[in-house]
């Protein structure tokens, strides 16, 4: 096993897998803890979104300035819980899992230094548009320097922000009396509900783009989130 240093300065383990047609390089991109929290959050986010929509349908409004009923119709197939009480139980149960795995993931990023692989840094902002042009306008692909390109890092950084917003506003919605001064400061219960719903929409908007990026980068990109290893990543070819 060898290691290489990416542009971020963090080492990535590299091995040569012996195959019939010759050795094939693979890089260890996703540590076990990252993979575990990724799939746990995927499940909890799905459950919370469906149960959250069921909760919303019990009173489909965001306040007096927005229609008090029939604001949004959600198909039953996208709802979970069957009724308000059942949806709340599903929502709260998986909210704890979501918050816990999120804290573990963020703590791991901070302690291990893995955040440099995942989070967008100021010097990488200029690389967002070239990658967007590649994905959406079919322009030439910029040379890969590490596991995630700037556009991917922007997406992953945004999900952490959405996650923190969802947990924070969810806590205020669950305990509006205990956090009364903060609820009032942020505009009241109706406004907090809007913020919470917006955080959910942020996650929902992220998912299609995330899946498209996974598909565009090939099967090995998807498989690496199960095994931790990605075969023949672009940044190895660049070297």
Structural write-up:
The chain is of the alpha+beta class. The protein has a single domain (32-219), classed as Up-down Bundle (Fumarate Reductase Cytochrome B subunit). It has helices spanning 32-58, 84-112, 115-118, 128-137, 150-174, 180-185, 189-216, 219-227, 234-237; strands spanning 2-5, 11-19, 22-28, 229-231. The model is unreliable at 1-5 and 14-22 (pLDDT under 50).
Short précis:
By secondary structure, the protein is α+β, with helices and mostly antiparallel strands. The protein has nine helices and four strands, in the order βββααααααααβα.
The CATH class turns out to be Mainly Alpha
CATH topology annotation: Fumarate Reductase Cytochrome B subunit
End-to-end Cα distance: 17 Å
Question: Please, what is the average pLDDT?
Answer: 80
CATH superfamily: Transmembrane di-heme cytochromes, Chain C
Strand order of the largest sheet: 1-2-3-4
> Structural class from helices and strands?
alpha+beta
- The number of distinct helices, counting runs of at least 4 residues, comes to 9
The tally of domains stands at 1
Report the CATH architecture. Up-down Bundle
Helix content: 55-70%
Percent range for β-strand residues:
5-15%
N to C succession of SSEs: EEEHHHHHHHHEH
What gyration radius follows from the Cα positions, in whole Å? 21 Å
Uncertain runs are 1-5, 14-22
The description of the largest β-sheet is: 4 strands, antiparallel
